Amino acid sequence: MSLRNPVARTRIFLAAAFCAFAALLSGCSQDKTWDLDNITGIVSPLAFSLTDDTGRHVTAETYRGRIVMLYFGYTHCPDVCPTTLATLSQALSKLGAAADKVRILFVTVDPQRDTPPLLKRYTEAFGPEFIGLRTDDPALRQLAKRYRVTYSLGKPDAHGNYEATHSSAVFIFDGKGKARLMAESSSSAAAIAHDVQQLIGGA
Amino acid sequence: MHSLLQSIALFLIPWEFSPTVLLLCAGSVLLYVRGLRHASGEATSPGFWRIAAFFVGLTSIYAFLQTHLDYLSQHMFWIHRLQHLVLHHAGPFLIALAAPLEIMALGTPRWLRRGLFAPVFNNPLTLRLYRLLQHPVVAPLLFTGLIGFWLIPSVHFKAMLSLARYDVMNWSMLIDGLLFWWLIVGPEKHTGLKPLGYGTRIIMLWAIMLPQIAIGAYIALSSTILYTSYSVCGRAWPIAPMTDQDIGGLITWIPAAMMSAVGALVVLRRWRNDSHSERARQSSLGMEVQ
Question: Are residues A3 and A79 in the same domain?
């Protein structure tokens, strides 16, 4: 089979293309190291400029060296936020003393109602590692866009109450601020604890 | 009135501004309009419908890449499917029907043609790649392969979480759409290749239809949520995830596959016109012999 022969060349090319495609597909299969979704190299690194629940200005640098879990929610959230935060709290208690190496950043999508004192009371209820963060609309929209998530506020009812839609993702960053894993509202505390333990161990 | 203007402005402002999209769309319009001016009154001047097809096709592509529709496509599965229906099917189909390259070449300044277009398009590597991609077996495989590839749930999930992957996905769909429909309903001349037979084109259209029906039906009839990124990242407005997925599957299934029927109608019409003129030519030749 001569390489000068166009038919042979086409055949070799098609075979090579098929192998490349198969390799690509097998590369997409789940790795067994992590229980959660591995987002290394996919999601942007940690970067933000926000106000924390004590009124202090904070950036990603503030939490460098710690495992950071970033979550978008709001304190009036009826179900998803409290259950997700409770799961994270359970995961931290499984970690024991190592939990201090973790910070959970709860960014409110409802800064109008979520004043710093309210945020502080809400996040403290889940544990000392939980910190409420807030900012106003253009900056909040930009931050959500950076993590490819969205939120929207519903119309207020007669009592001025309204619901918000938001992402259910918990983005987990390593000590260098690199995005590593993603937990969802359905992830178990055991899975989160297992993976965070590995991250603390330097995996 | 004020709030109306505000919402129109909000709609038109790009969600993720892309200089590439702006440059390519504005550049194409500029070359096309210059070319139209050159061609006005001459035989090469395209009629109203071809000009309209060009502008509608290009505008719809721009709208799905650079307006609020792009935001909605990122946060609602069925709008994402609609986005790909425009980027991979309807938009390129209209542009191929308009066959604007001849007009655009008329409008291209000499420095641009000599400095950029001629070296790139006449490059043997470009021509070889073009010939490979436009092979009658490769083209339908690529067309349906790309649809299938980006709809593999794990691939789709990552494309929706990474701006870079999202851009690669949309560009691959758009470029492949332009190549495929150019091959099927584009002009007969200036393709750089011997035009495909009409029968071959009908077979290709049929070949891309069946996998699209299969993929669309699989999504629409699936009883589990296949594409979780929309739930995880938040939807543009509250809608049941299952409803979102069902509509998205139906868009992939019916209108996308229907494009093959529309394409086949165009091909059949040209086939008939060609055989008519062929017969006319033969009969006039016969007259001469007599």
Answer: no
Residues A75, A16 share a domain: no
**A5 and A62 assigned to the same domain:** no
C-beta separation of A131 from A123 below 8 A:
yes
What's the mean pLDDT in A11-22? 61
Domain boundaries, chain B: 14-284
Please compute, for residue B35, the number of CA atoms within 13 A of its CA located in the half-sphere on the CB side. Answer: 21
Domain limits at A14?
1-30
Q: Are residues A49 and A117 in the same domain?
A: yes
Measured between beta carbons, which residues in chain A are less than 8 angstroms from residue B235? 150, 165
CA R_g for chain B? 21
Query: How many CB pairs (< 8 A) connect A and B?
Result: 58
Over residues B189-218, the pLDDT tens digits come to 655 677 889 999 999 999 999 999 999 999
The structural domain count of chain A equals: 2
DSSP B270-287: HHHHHHHHHHHHHHHHHH
Is B237–A42 a contact, with Cβ atoms under 8 angstroms apart? Answer: no
- Work out the minimum CA distance from B9 to partner chain A, whole angstroms: 16
pLDDT at A161: 87
The CATH number of residue A81's host domain is 3.40.30.10
Please report which confidence band the pLDDT of residue A153 belongs to, taking 50, 70 and 90 as the band edges: confident
Q: Do B233 and A37 touch (CB under 8 A)?
A: no
CA terminus-to-terminus distance, chain A: 49
- Pairing label, strands A67-73, A102-108: parallel
CA A40, distance to chain mean position in Å, is 12
